[in-house]
Fold these 2 entries.
Entry 1:
Amino acid sequence: MFAQVIVDIAHSQVDKVFEYSCPPETKVGCRVKVPFGGRIIEGFVIGLSETSAFAAEKIKPVTSVYDELPALVPECFSLMENIAERYRVPKAASLRLFLPSEMRLGKVNETYIKRIKFTGVEPSLSKAAKKQTEALAELKEKGDCEYVPLTKKYGSGAVNALVEKGAAEIYKVKRNRTPAYAEGDTSVKVLTPDQRGAVEYIENSPFRVNLIHGVTGSGKTEIYLNIIADKLREGKSAIFLVPEISLTPQMLAQLRARFGGQAAILHSGLSAGERFDEWWRLRSGEAKIAIGARSAIFAPLENIGAIIIDEEHDSSYRSETAPRYSTVDIARLRAEYNGCKLILGSATPSVESYIEATEGRYGLVTLTERINGRPLPEIIIADMRKEVKRGNPSNLSRALREELDETLSKGNQAIIFINRRGYSQTVICTDCGYVAKCENCDVSLTYHSEENCLKCHYCGAKYHMLSACPQCKGTHLRYSGTGTQRVVEELSRLFPSARIIRMDNDTVSGKDGHYKILKQFAEKKADILVGTQMIAKGHDFPAVTLVGILDADMSLHFSDYRSGERTFQLITQVAGRSGRAGDKGKVVLQTYSPENYILRFAVQYDYKSFFENEVKMRKAALYPPYSLICRVMVVAEKDDKALEALKNVFFAIDEIRAEDSGDFIFFNKMHSPIKRIQNKVRYQVLARLRSQKHLKQIYDIAVECTTPDALVYVEENPANLS
Ligand code: ADP
Ligand code: ZN
C-alpha cells in the first residue's frame, strides 16, 4: 500500500504531498515517521492508494506508523486546504493547528497505572511463603487492585511470585490527568420564557450563523448549556469557546456538573500532560464537549451538533501568529462541514457581526432583560477634570471613594478596573524629560514597586531602578501614569481594613494562577479586586455591587477605527460584573471627557444607538467592514534587510495599485508605531482597500518577499496596530 504524506516542515518549498510505501495497518489521518532529505521526520497521512504512479525504486517505506486511532479526523483535510489557501500558509502549518504541540514533538505520552488482578488460579504455596499467602488473600478479597501499593505492603518479590505462578496478572490502565476546575453554582435551572424562546429560535432558524445579543446577566450560559444538552441527546458533539483562559475553570465546573466526563477542556494554560489526555478523550469519543479558548476550535471532534462562541466580539479570537486566522471564519467552515449551527453570543456584539444580523445574513436573538428582571447597574460619571480642579490628586474620584465606603460597610465586594494598556507607570526625569526605555524594544519601561525594578511589558526584560537620570544626571525622577500596583497602594491607605487583591500579568503565574485569585475572590476572602482587562469579562461574582472604571477614556485616544467600539464594549462588560445577584449594582466611570458620545451611549446601555452611529461613521469614512485594512508587516534583525524587503513589498503592491487605483483608499509604507520589539525592527505597508479582490495577491507578495533575513506577513483588519 502507498501513503500520501505531508511532512511536518512548514516551509513553502516542501509544501507538497510525498508518497511512501506503508504497512497495511496504516490509516488516513495517522502520524508517521518518514525518511526525508537524509533525516527521519514526522509526517501526516492524508491519503492511501493501492498503486503508485512512481517507479518502485523511487519509493521509500515509512519508518513507523503511530496512532491506532488516526490522530487527524477526516474533516481536518478539508479545513487544511481552506486554511492553507485562505491564509497562504504551507499545509503542514495548517495541519499543526489540529494537534496539541506536545503531541507533534512526541514529548508527552499517555501515563499508565499498573494494576493487578486475581486470575482464579489457586497456586500451591509452601507454609514458609507467608508474604505470598497474605498478598494472595488480599488480592482474592479485592479481586483487583493497584500494583504498587500491594508491593509496598508485601514486597515485590512476593507479588511477582504470584504472577509467575499464574495466580495474578498485571495490566495497565490509562491514567487521565484532569485539569483543575472551580466550584460554583451548578444547579440546573428552569429556563425563563426568553431563554426557551432563544433555544427554540436557534434550533429552528434557517440561518447557519445565529447571534445572541443579550445584556450582561441575561442568562446566555444557560441557553448554551441547553443547546449542548439537546445535541448530546441526538448523539452529537459540541464545541464551546470562551475568550479568556481565566474563564474556563468556571465554565468547566458548570459543564462538568451537568455533563460529567463528557466535557473536556483544551487551552494553553494546561500542563502538556493534561492537554494531551483531554485531547485524546475528545478524539476517542469519550468526551463530547470541547471547551476552551481560541485554539479549541480545532478540537478533534466528529459529528459536531453545535459550535458556540461566547463573547464573540473579543479580540482574543484572532490569532496573532501564523496562520492569522479569525476563529469565527474557521467555526463557520466547521459548521458548514458538519451541517450544524454556529452560535455567537455577546452583550456587545462586534459591529461586523451585528451588521450581518441586521442585514439578514445571521439569525438574531435579542435578550434585553437580566434574569429575574434585575436592573442593570446605574453608571455614575465622575468628571476627573473637576477632581483635579478641586485639588484631588488621587486616582480615585470622590464619588468612587464614597461608593467604596458604602459597599464595604455593607459587606459587599468591589472590582476596580484599570485599562492599563499604554497607561502604566513610567519613569520621567522632570529636569530633562528623559523617559526610561527598553534596550530591545521601542517602548517605555514600567516601574514595579514590589521588586523595585523596571520591566518591559513587551519582552519581559528587567532593569535596575534608576537613582539618577542617565541623560542629565539629575535626581528629580517622577513616576507618571497609573499602574495596578499604585492603585492598590492608594486603596490600602484609604481603606486600611479592606482586603485587596490584584490580578494582572504580574500576579498571575503558573497554570492555575487565574483560577486561584478568582477563587479567593469568589469565596469572599477579599473585598476589592483590582485588575486589568483580565477581570473585565464573563465573571459572575454575586456579592459584587460596585465596579470602578478608573480611566474609561484611555482607549478612546488610540488612533484606530475600533477605539470607540472597544471602549463601549469594555465599559459594558466591566459594568456587567456589578449587581448580578443580591443588592442593586453601581458603576463609577471616571473620565476626562464626559461629553464623549461613546461614553454617553455606554452609560445608557444603548447598544442600538451606539451601533447606528458607528455604522454611519464607518460608512462615511470607509472603515471596515466597508473597507479592508491590510497591513503587511516586515520584521527583521537588520535595518537594511528590513528596508530591502519593505521596498519589494511596497513596489509589488504598487503594481496592483497602478492597475486598479480605484480599489485603494489609502496606501503607504512606514515604520510601525512600535519601531522595535525584542531587538527586531518593524516596518509596515498599510493599505485600505475597497474590496477583498486583491487580498490573495497581497498574501502571495508577502510569501514571495520573505527572505531568510526578513519575515513578511499580512494582517487583515488588525486588532492591534502597534
Ligand atoms: P450572561 O452570560 O448573559 O451574562 P449568565 O449566564 O452568567 O448571564 O447568567 C446570569 C445569572 O443568572 C447567573 O448567576 C445564572 O446562574 C443565573 N441564571 C441564568 N438562567 C437562570 C434561570 N433560568 N433561572 C435562574 N437563574 C438563572
Ligand atoms: Zn523590551
Note: Residues 639-659 form the longest helix (21 residues).
Entry 2:
Amino acid sequence: MSKMTTLHEFIMDRQSEFQYASGELSRLLNDIAVASKVVSRDVRRAGLTDDILGAQGETNIQGEEQQKLDVVADRQFIKMFESGGEVCGIASEENDDFMAFESELSKYGKYVVLFDPLDGSSNIDVNVSIGTIFSIYRRVSPVGTKATLEDMLQPGTKQVAAGYVLYGSSTMLVYTTGHGVNGFTLEPSIGEYCLSHPNMRMPEKSRLYGMNEGNIEICHPGIKDYAKYCQSFENDFGAPYSGRYIGSLVADFHRNLIKGGIYIYPATTTSPKGKLRLLYECNPLAMLAEQAGGLAVTETERVLDIVPTALHQRCGYITGSKNQVEKVQELIAAREAEK
Ligand code: P6P
C-alpha cells in the first residue's frame, strides 16, 4: 500500500513552488482545511439537530433565504480567518459588506479570502451534496493597515490560490495554487485530508452537459443551439449526450472535473447579469478549471479577466471541458454574426 500523504504534508512539500513561500499561505490553506472539517461534521449531522436544519428566517444580500447551516459555516470560516493572523479581511456571500479585521495581528495579514461558505444550501434539507468555495488574493493595501474594498475587487487572474470543499458521499478538498489541481479526501477515522486525486485533469470532451433547461428560452440563442446540439445525433459523438445537472454548483463542477462535461448558468432575460457570483463562485472555479485544462467563460469573455466593480456582482457562466466550452463559444459567435 503506497504511503498516505496528508494535506498538511502535501502543502509543506509544495510550499517552495509558491513565490511568496514564507509559510503564511501554507498556514492559511491548513486553516481552511480545519474549518471545513468542523463544517463537514455539522453538515453530516444536519438532519439530527434541529438547531441547524432549515431556514435561518433571514435573507442574505442575494435575497435568498439563509439556511441555518449557511450561517454556521460562515461564522466558522470567519472565526478561523480572524484568529489565524494570515488574513486581513474577507468577503462572503452571506455578508452584505466585506470585513476588515480589527486586530493588530490581522492588520499584518497579507491575504484576503472571498468565499461562499455553503453553496447550494437550498439542497441541505434534501440531503444533496453542497460545498464551500474559496478564493485567495494577496492584499494590495499596505500591510499593517485595515483591509480595503480594493483588496477584494481584484480580477481572477490575481488569485494566488482557489479551491472548494465538497460535502458529498465523502468530504473532499480540491485546490490549486497555480501549479495544477489536487484533491484530498477526508478520512473521518483520523480526521485528516489525504491525497486521493493527484494532478487532476479535466477531460477535453465528454458526452455530459448540464444546465437548468428551464432557462432555455430566455438565454442567449447560441446556448439554446448548444443544448439542441447535445440532444441531437449530429454532434461529435453521433448520439445524444446525457444531461447531468444536480443544482449544486460544486457538485456539478466536481463531476465535470473528473468525468468531463460542461456546466452552463447563462445570463437570462430575468437575470441579465446571470445568477452566479463572480468573486466567490465563478473566479475560484475558473482558476481550477483552467489549471486542470478546462475553460471558464461568460457569453462574451474569459471569466478570470473580468475586472470586478462590486462584491456581489454576477456573471453568465460556462465552464468545463475545453472542447465543449469552445463549441458553445462557436455557436454564440455564429448567432452574433447573424445580427
Ligand atoms: P437553479 C445554488 O443556489 C446555485 O448558486 C448553484 O449551486 C446551482 O448550480 C444553481 O444555483 C442552481 O440554480 O436556478 O438551477 O436552481
Note: The pocket of 6-O-phosphono-alpha-D-fructofuranose is lined by residues 119-120, 122, 212, 247-249, 252, 275-276 (CB under 6 Å).
